[in-house]
Amino acid sequence: MTNLSMKHQIKRGLLFAILLLSQVYAWAAPPALSVTASQQNQSCLSCHSDTDIHSIVTSKAHDKLQLSAEDYQESVHGGLPCIACHQSAPNSQGFDATPHQLAPQQNTRCEGCHAVMLHDTITAENASVHQQKIEQGQFTCTACHDAHTMSSGVISHPSKTQIAKSNQTCINCHSRAGVYSQLAKGKSATKQDLAHKMLPYSEQHLASLRCIDCHVAANDETLHKILPASQAVTCEQCHSNSALLIQRQKTDIALFPSTPGSLLGKGLFDDSQLQKKLANLPVTGEKTEQVQTVKGTLFSNTYMIGSNGSNHWDKLYLYALVTFIGLLICHGLGRVIGRKLLKRSHENASEDKIYLYTLLVRCWHWLNALCCITLLVSGIALHFVTQRFATWVNIHNIAGLTLCAIWVLFIIAALSGNGHHYLVRWRGISARLYRQTRYYLIGIFRGEPHPEHPSQQSKFNILQQLGYIGIMFALVPLLIVSGLLMLFPEYSPTKIFGWPGKQIIAYLHYALALIMLMFVIVHLYLCTTGDSLGALIKGMIDGFHRSKKMK
């Protein structure tokens, strides 16, 4: 009985010990993480959620002390207690002291949890100018990424709001003189060109681009290898057909590979062991999406010069232009052959001169021609993204604004009495159109006289008159208006007939420029159709229109 009672007592003692230990474990072990984190963080947030909190040390310029409890709970780390990352230093007062005496950050760095999946990102960041120039330990992931408020699972093709928020991260350090000087080892913040004055449309660039779009290495898909300002991407890299910006903001970048075997060849694991394990996995063909991609609105209503165009339409127009120039060359050769066959001589003909073009008209004409040619050349340079892109932008804008002033002078001159040259005489217009068209297609080869001659009452034949009316009163105004809306895109309508306004305006400007190019070519050719090859050109130099009259 004694042994039996002793056994019962031992069993009861063990059971009591187990129950006691289980209660101690239950008391010591944390309950559900979401509840414990909220409770444990209350003491921290009681101070850190106060908007009046401020730092009393400057050891880390980018540290942020104020934190909204709601923002933290909604963040990716909202289910973690603060002490998961912020720990007291051994043998110290820890959180009881102000400033807190914390353990070295190396023990709780982001890499501790994210090193495997973000291996490429961390490698790129370690090669960035921030790590190369800033004192060791002064720049970490949290300098740019707020671990307390960042959301999870979204790679966003940025909208305007997201761009501004992204850039604010950079501005927080670069625009604060004391912070920048501390991180840059004494370099003055005033030596930076934060306004980016070297950029055409600097305000639009800063509002539409993230800092990392230009200051990250062109071949860095992680967007973390920040380069010095002197090595920023060039205009051509973004505005060309293979636009770097388009690729970065419209193409899904696989920052987080999630397919089997995606970590092979990275030097992170034993590849042979991984391959053996992968061989036993069932082949489903399905890809697990760990990151949701959300498209923003940056490219929904915009036109980026050099990369929004269409090579297909460019080629079609080029073929048409070459064909058209070929026809003009054939027409010119036909005139030369016709003169030789007719053997008609103007040696005995007298030259008749009439003063038609005043000095003001001639100056206006040559300045207008210079602007048009400059706009066409610079427009081609921009459309096909040549070297010195920014310089061509400035040239194009200056020439365009000058053309605006010239066109205003043209309208003033037309209203002041010169406009009668553009008044069409509708009576007998069909016959006049027929005679002039027949002359250019047939009569000019036979050496026939011009059906209409310039005079003080009308300087132009009917085809010239209709052409100049269309150019000066329709095409040029549309070019100017569309160009000004591209120069000041904030005034562009959001929608035109249900289509994105900025894109419609840009394509209209492009189409009008193509028509203008055709007109300039025709105009230059027709300058050779006077009674002599250079008669019309001489007239625009000295003001006299020359014609031959047989004695």
Automatic annotation (TrEMBL):
Q: Name one GO molecular function term.
A: heme binding
Q: Where are the transmembrane segments?
A: 316-338, 359-386, 398-417, 466-487, 507-526
Per the record, its GO cellular-component terms are:
plasma membrane
Membrane topology is: Multi-pass membrane protein
Q: Tell me the keywords, alphabetical order.
A: Cell membrane, Electron transport, Heme, Iron, Membrane, Metal-binding, Signal, Transmembrane, Transmembrane helix, Transport
Q: Does the keyword Cell membrane apply?
A: yes
GO terms under biological process: anaerobic respiration; respiratory electron transport chain
Similarity comment: Belongs to the HupC/HyaC/HydC family.
> Which protein is depicted?
Thiosulfate reductase cytochrome B subunit
Q: Which organism is it from?
A: Hafnia paralvei
Lineage, highest ranks first: Bacteria, Pseudomonadati, Pseudomonadota, Gammaproteobacteria, Enterobacterales
